[in-house]
Design brief:
The complex is a heterodimer of chains A (113) and B (116). Chain A is an all-beta fold. Chain A contains no helices and 11 strands. Classes of the chains: A mainly beta (113), B mainly beta (116).
Chain lengths: 113, 116
């Protein structure tokens, strides 16, 4: 069974702080890594899909990097704003689980004004 | 209008009752999924379907069944609901094709189910 771990489980930062969190996955079983943003009372929304070692993707103040050899991805938020408060989910599409994603438990970010 | 809709949005039922959660999509995607979310556990896959004639079990299919009535519709049934099926249920579609893992998943608004 594939295991996708996210850390920390929760995070509180002040407005303006930059922050980052981690998604770890089995490096031997990698096909694609997805990041989703899930605001309370809304649906999870896709941020990035990453497939290549060394990939770096950016959307506004949010960026992500991928290391498939060591099995981790970092999500960075630069200059956090209260509207960034959400749960950030990563999900692995492993080579052994065609067509389906294994989600981590999420990192819940709270940005205080 | 939302591309992925779920009905009902909230449901309270009693142990032993049969209930159905419905999902419809207007995105034209072949792939559809049902997940449940429990606090601290992330999203866990219940069932998924790659087309109308394809149904696959996910991690936690026991106690659930599904029906893919059409490309646009994917229903989840709890044949005899039990309290530990109390959770938030999400339907999703994916624009991936073949064995590609690169497709993005698009989630419905969720159905909050309480089994008493």
């Amino acid at each position: 069974i594939l295991n996708v771990e996210q850390s920390p489980q929760s995070l509180h930062v002040q407005e303006g702080d930059s922050t980052n969190f981690t998604c770890s996955f089995p490096s031997s079983n990698f096909y694609a890594l997805h990041w989703y943003r899930w605001e309370t009372a809304k649906s999870p929304e896709a941020l990035f899909v990453m497939t290549l070692n060394g990939d770096e993707k950016k959307k506004g103040r949010i960026s992500a990097t991928l290391n498939t050899k060591e099995g981790y991805s970092y999500l960075y938020i630069k200059g956090s704003q209260p509207e960034d408060s959400a749960t950030y989910l990563c999900a692995l599409h492993g080579s052994s689980n065609t067509g389906k994603l294994i989600f981590g438990q999420g990192t819940t970010l709270q940005v205080k004004p | 209008d939302a591309d992925v809709t779920q009905t009902p949005r909230n449901r309270i039922t009693k142990t032993g009752k049969r209930i159905m959660l419905e999902c419809s999509q207007t995105k034209g995607h072949d792939r559809m999924y049902w997940y449940r979310q429990d606090p601290g556990l992330g999203l866990r896959l219940i069932y998924y379907s790659f087309d109308v004639k394809d149904i696959n079990k996910g991690e936690i299919s026991d106690g659930y069944s599904v029906s893919r009535q059409a490309q646009a519709k994917f229903s989840l049934s709890l044949e005899s609901a039990i309290p530990n099926q109390t959770a938030l249920y999400f339907c999703a579609t994916s624009d991936a094709t073949g064995t590609s893992g690169r497709g993005t998943q698009y989630f419905g608004p969720g159905t909050r189910l309480l089994v008493l």
